[in-house]
Write a structure and sequence with these properties.
386 residues, alpha/beta, Rossmann fold, 2 domains, 7-stranded mixed β-sheet, 5-stranded parallel β-sheet, 12 helices, 12 strands, 15% strand, globular
């Protein structure tokens, strides 16, 4: 009888433990015994879809590879996407849907700074962990929010690096060409401050717009000012139009770009003039292109999963961000909660990513990536420039 009683109570205890564990899992948004639901937002359509759709495709391909190996602590990762159209109101709406309708565990996303900056208050209010994969504005993570981290290089880091590159490569007269929207100002203002601290006066300061169709007027003024290096703070169309129209008037300065225009083959195609990028370098998050040999495995996986993608460095940015995101998930342990996940970012210290060019450190900072690299186009191939 005693043995039966012990067996009975042991069975009850095990059942209770299982019930408690199941209840705890159910209480964590987006987490079940078999899956973790992860949200993403960014532009899935429109002229800058590469910042969202292609980056998300990279995330999904990494998740797929992880899921083939059993996921993270036995849970498969499921990606839920929302289109923010690269607009502030779109970012807010996307985050609300992910947090309150889809009830995701965390978000890995943020393709455009304008949309992501606008969404930050809602992200903080919802308490959903947010890992930024593409947007660069410092204001997304500064001042720090307990639930927001980024593995993208931030705008202020990029702006300083652009100036330093030009100076290191012999430029004497520098100019700025920038969009003056929220995204552009997140780069423009720290760049002006850096010029001031260096005691350098720019010879020209021109504005461009996202949908600009003609850059002749700006090109003529830059040429007249004698600028031998241009710090280019624009989206692809604005950058392409300005470079194209500068070439047409015989003006060929050193162009120093940033991560919004790091897809050099795509930029070359937009310009439509052979050799247009012979005097162009850009900061990049990833020092290469999916066509480069070191990314052959990822290229194959991306093409197998998304055969219609015109592959881009933004696909690789998604892979890279997802790799770190998964590393944090693993460090958080099997008994997953949002709190444990956010605490686990502090375990990421000098992490050697297989895709990012430099070490990733989230310990003691929410800006985990401090390693900009530069690329250029040689014989239609993207090559590491420094």
């Amino acid at each position: 009888m005693k043995r039966r009683a012990h067996a009975f109570f042991a069975t009850i205890a095990v059942a209770a433990a299982i019930a408690i564990t199941g209840a705890q899992a159910a209480e964590v948004p987006g987490v079940t015994d078999t899956e973790i639901r992860v949200g993403s937002f960014g532009p899935l359509t429109g002229p800058v879809y590469i910042y969202g759709k292609l980056t998300m495709n990279g995330v999904e391909v990494y998740f797929n590879e992880l899921n083939k190996k059993g996921g993270v602590h036995g849970r498969k990762l499921v990606l839920v996407r929302e289109d923010d159209l690269c607009k502030p109101e779109g970012g807010i709406a996307a985050v609300k849907k992910l947090a309150y309708e889809h009830k995701v565990f965390a978000i890995i996303g943020g393709g455009c700074s304008n949309a992501t900056l606008a969404a930050r208050p809602e992200i903080e209010k919802a308490g959903v962990p947010f890992h930024v994969f593409a947007a660069v504005a410092d204001g997304i993570v500064d001042p720090p929010a307990s639930n927001i981290y980024t593995t993208q290089i931030t705008a202020s880091v990029e702006s300083r690096a652009q100036i330093q590159w030009a100076l290191d490569h012999g430029a004497k007269t520098l100019a700025i060409v920038a969009q003056h929207d929220a995204w552009g100002r997140s780069r423009y203002e720290p760049m002006l401050e850096d010029f001031k601290q260096r005691g350098i006066k720019v010879v020209a300061d021109e504005e461009v717009t996202v949908d600009q169709n003609d850059g002749t007027a700006q090109a003529l003024r830059l040429k007249a000012a004698g600028a031998d290096a241009i710090m280019l703070l624009g989206y692809p169309k604005a950058a392409a139009v300005l470079i194209r129209d500068s070439i047409k008037i015989g003006y060929k300065p050193l162009w120093v770009g940033q991560t919004a225009i790091q897809d050099l083959p795509a930029l070359q195609n937009l310009i439509g003039i052979g050799g247009a990028l012979s005097d162009f370098v850009s900061i990049t998050t990833i020092p290469g292109h999916p066509d480069n040999p070191q990314y052959a495995d990822w290229r194959t996986r991306l093409k197998d999963t998304f055969p219609n993608d015109d592959l881009s460095v933004f696909n690789l940015m998604g892979v890279a961000a997802a790799e770190v995101f998964a590393k944090v998930l693993d460090a958080a342990g099997k008994d997953l909660t949002r709190e444990k996940f956010l605490e686990a970012y502090n375990t990421i210290d000098n992490y050697k990513s297989s895709v990012y060019p430099g070490p990733i450190t989230c310990k003691g900072t929410h800006k985990c990536n401090q390693s900009p690299a530069f690329v250029k186009l040689e014989n239609n191939n993207v090559v590491f420039a420094g």
